[in-house]
Design a protein that fits this description.
Strand order of the largest sheet: 3-2-4-7-1-8-11-10-9
CATH topology of the largest domain: Peroxisomal Thiolase, Chain A, domain 1
Strand content: 15-25%
Helix content: 25-40%
Number of helices: 13
Oligomer: single chain
Order of helices and strands: EHEHEHEHHHHEEEHEHEHHHHEE
Length: 403
Amino acid sequence: MSNLKDKYAIVGVGETEYSRNSGRTTRALGMEAIRNAMRDAGLEPGEVDGMLSYHGNDSTDSLTIAGDLGIRLNFYMDCSGGGSSTEALIGLATGAIEAGMCETVVVFRAMNGYTEARIGGTGRQVPVYTGGALYQGIYGVNSAAQMFAAAFMRHMFEHGTTSEQIANVKAVHSRHASNNPKAFYKERVTVQDVLSSRWITRPLHLLDCCVETDNGTAIIVTSAERARDLRQKPAYIMAVAGRTSKRKANYHWSYAPITLHSGQYAGPRIFANAGVTPEDIDVTGAYDAFTFTPIFQLEAYGFCEPGGGGDYVTNGTIELGGKRPNNTSGGHLCEVYTHGMNMVIENVRQLRGLVDDYCPNWAAGEHTYDYSERGCRQVRDVELTANLGWASPAIGSALIMHN
């Protein structure tokens, strides 16, 4: 990837309303999100010729949506997988353009994650378990929380990580979301609020778990050369790590150490290719399906030492106004659940200086940097961002961008 540094950029981002009752098909949601991203970039249908999507339990295929939008594709692919898909697909988009298969690629995700294909199986569509899930299901390990709990508990045992520390991730992200007009949960919560919510799977309480929503999201990737002529300030792609795995990815708890994320392998590669270090990053977007997942990722990618994640998320570093804010939109815990798409969209807007918050003139790039409730969430002088994708403790992806 080092020879592709800064050759490609994200030039358009778009989304639908984040809701729990879209009343629409994933086809309609995908179309709206892509239209919004094209409008953001200043592109017409004839100027997009590639499409990638992630689907799991639901979604609509690329060919259908492209046809609805009047887009003729030179390249497309629909894949399934976990939450590390977003960053990996962005990397594949740059590869497809580099290979000459297309010129401009839309990456999209459309999901009715609350009303239809709900991960917990209580929506209108019942999840279908195949492969390894058939075998772990007989032991009562069906949900993501159940699959990851062993690694989380082991981290607490080995490093003394506390429930109060992981709950602080939710409290911080809720403060960020309170300054986000489109966040599903805008109410600020405290550490005690999290600890007082009911248990789901130890060590996770209800408020340690992400929000479930209906939504569509889209990201447009093209060459840096072409990006210069488009509507928005480009977010240049410095490096991508896609779907890096540990030695034992299925039944990850059976292969030690279970307290380390696959970012331990992806981190050295992506930072070397980008030519920067974790210390250079201004904003992180660490996948927060649960309050514990950012801790695993931030440790694995070298933002703190193994076992130091609990202190890292409680010492002010990840807060707006801190050294390296994390998930400034509220992330999956508070803004929306999109399998990582919203956190890349947020970091693109951070790099533009155009985060949509409650500042009166945010659309003109004028921010107060007052992070009190219903205030600003734009980080001052952002130059480099990192997105850290999570599928499980054993599988992850990452993306580093700059403006």
